[in-house]
Design brief:
Radius of gyration: 37 Å
Distance between the termini: 51 Å
CATH topology of the largest domain: inorganic pyrophosphatase (n-terminal core)
Shape: elongated
Helix content: 25-40%
CATH class of the largest domain: Alpha Beta
């Protein structure tokens, strides 16, 4: 069954992580094959939640771009370097490929042979030498063993094409030779006396018992074949190891984790037809052709807690989005086919997922109830935020019973861990939970930091604002930061220095300044973003 990743947004908070985990659990109970993943480091609050309920942290997902491993490539088009030329060709023929990867015993790539090299060998290759094993020879010439004293054969081929006397007078035989001979007793005797490596008796001829005895004593291997000498000589060339060909020992390869887009560029630059596929250890996995570039499978994903390309995983445009579960405003994401899209104006994605459990009649186990409860408490600031709805409150009550926790005590312990900013750098704090959106030609970033340690920031406002200015001069045009203190039930507002007039207009006051405290400001999404958009659009 097709594997599907369940993922949240790029800046994982407790809701996005717990929604991925709980929805994946639900989907798998319904018969799907899903895996929760995160797109970044999880924060301390989320770690506390997962540890408390003994739930495994999802692994990191870098991107969902199409890679070589998602493409069609031939996993069977490789042979051991000791495979015969004939057998290598038969594999190429069976697989309908014009090239074949040559590997060693551990599947490490040794080279690439194409039909072009095979043709050269058949037309103009050196047929005087043989380097192979007995098994390859038997296969190539349809032979059978008469005597065998060694498996590896490496030597010069001599065919008995002259009269016996001519051969004995002009050709000095030795252990370096492989002798091809028919029924010539004298030549056979001379070859055996010279202790050649191998004698191949052609034409289906038998060998005299006296000569066999002498061959045993001299440890001369003998093979016989029904082929005549001419055809034996021709076929014997194909018994050579494939590695004896003039193969490309350093072919242009692709790693199975390479992106398809990079492969397309490689094809254009190199112009080759065949490319071995390897892993990071240079182990060969198969062969891919340039024409395979358009044969691939896209990765399937389910999005939770977001529905915009700019907040999602890298390469989302190349993936298939099967479903979206979210509680935010609709963004610009689109799909090529209809999908299940579920959105509710509630405080947490896990509130929606809770109802999906109920609708499907799936029992919620204690650990899943715990993480879903934590997500709702986190996203609604312990149900104090204006985003909290009566639906969220009811779901929290139900989940708390299953998870067997005291909501007030557990929630306070959770946010206390999550709100701590001790030892964190300003640039890390600003980037930890930042939402981005575009208004006209302005790219706006709004960061929200929850803390009970506001004095740590207030002690050096200039340095903190300097970091905000850096962000506003980099990937954003406007940067606004909320420092939210849940105990004071409000937020301190900071902003890049060039946006001071904007903030004065947003709050309709000339007395606005860095660290301006706004009572009851807890929701960035509902209480700040709409006002900022309204002013910018004017």
């Amino acid at each position: 069954m097709e594997k599907t990743y369940v993922i949240g947004h790029q800046k994982p908070d407790t809701d996005t992580v717990c929604a991925s985990i709980s929805l994946s659990y639900l989907k798998n109970k319904l018969g799907f094959n899903t895996i929760p993943r995160v797109l970044g480091h999880i924060n301390n609050e989320t770690k506390f939640v997962l540890n408390y309920f003994n739930v495994k942290e999802p692994e990191y997902l870098n991107d969902v771009k199409v890679q070589i491993r998602h493409m069609r490539y031939n996993k069977n088009c490789m042979v051991d370097e000791k495979t015969s030329i004939l057998d290598a060709f038969l594999v190429m023929q069976k697989e309908a490929e014009t090239g074949i990867c040559i590997v060693d015993d551990s599947k490490k790539l040794k080279g690439l042979v194409t039909l072009k090299e095979l043709a050269k060998q058949l037309i103009s290759g050196n047929r005087d030498f043989l380097k192979t094993n007995i098994s390859n020879i038997l296969s190539a010439i349809q032979g059978e063993i008469v005597l065998k004293f060694q498996d590896e054969i490496d030597g010069v081929i001599i065919a008995a094409a002259y009269q016996s006397k001519t051969i004995m007078d002009t050709i000095k035989l030795s252990h370096e030779n492989i002798m091809l001979v028919g029924d010539r007793y004298k030549v056979l005797e001379y070859a055996i006396d010279s202790k050649v490596q191998l004698i191949i008796v052609t034409g289906g001829n038998e060998i005299d018992d006296e000569l066999l005895t002498k061959a045993k004593n001299n440890k001369v291997s003998i093979i016989k074949t029904n082929l005549d000498t001419y055809h034996t000589s021709t076929c014997l060339t194909l018994a050579n190891y494939i590695s004896t060909l003039a193969m490309e020992k350093n072919p242009v390869c692709v790693n199975y984790l390479d992106y398809r887009t990079d492969f397309l560029e490689l094809i254009e630059k190199s112009g080759f037809t065949n490319y071995p596929v390897v892993n990071k250890s240079s182990k060969c996995l198969g062969l891919i052709r340039n024409v395979d570039a358009n044969q691939f499978e896209k990765i399937h994903v389910i999005l939770v807690d977001h529905n915009g390309y700019n907040q999602s995983v890298d390469g989302i445009e190349e993936a298939i989005v099967d479903e979206i579960i979210d509680h935010h405003n609709l963004a610009q994401i689109g799909t090529s086919v209809p999908i299940n899209f579920r959105s509710m104006p509630v405080g947490s994605t896990c509130t929606i997922i809770y109802h999906m459990f109920i609708e499907n009649g799936i029992r919620i186990p204690k650990d899943i109830a715990g993480v879903m409860l934590s997500a709702i408490l986190s996203d609604t600031l312990l149900l104090k935020s204006v985003t909290a709805t009566p639906i969220d409150r009811k779901v929290v009550q139900n989940l708390a019973k299953i998870a067997k926790v005291d909501v007030l005590k557990y929630g306070h312990d959770m946010v206390k861990v999550g709100f701590s900013i001790k030892g964190k750098k300003a640039e890390d704090l600003l980037d930890e939970d930042i939402k981005s959106f575009r208004v006209g030609n302005k790219f706006v970033g709004i960061s929200q930091i929850f803390t009970m340690d506001y004095d740590d920031i207030a002690s050096d406002v200039d340095s903190f604002v300097n970091e905000i200015d850096k962000m506003a001069n980099g990937r954003f045009d406007i940067v606004i930061v909320l420092i939210t203190d849940i105990e004071k039930n409000g937020s301190y507002i900071f902003y890049d220095r060039k946006s001071e007039n904007l903030m004065k207009d947003v709050y309709n006051t000339e007395e606005f300044y860095q660290g301006y405290f706004v009572k009851n400001l807890l929701s960035r999404k509902k209480q700040l973003v709409p006002n900022v958009i309204e002013v910018l659009e004017k």
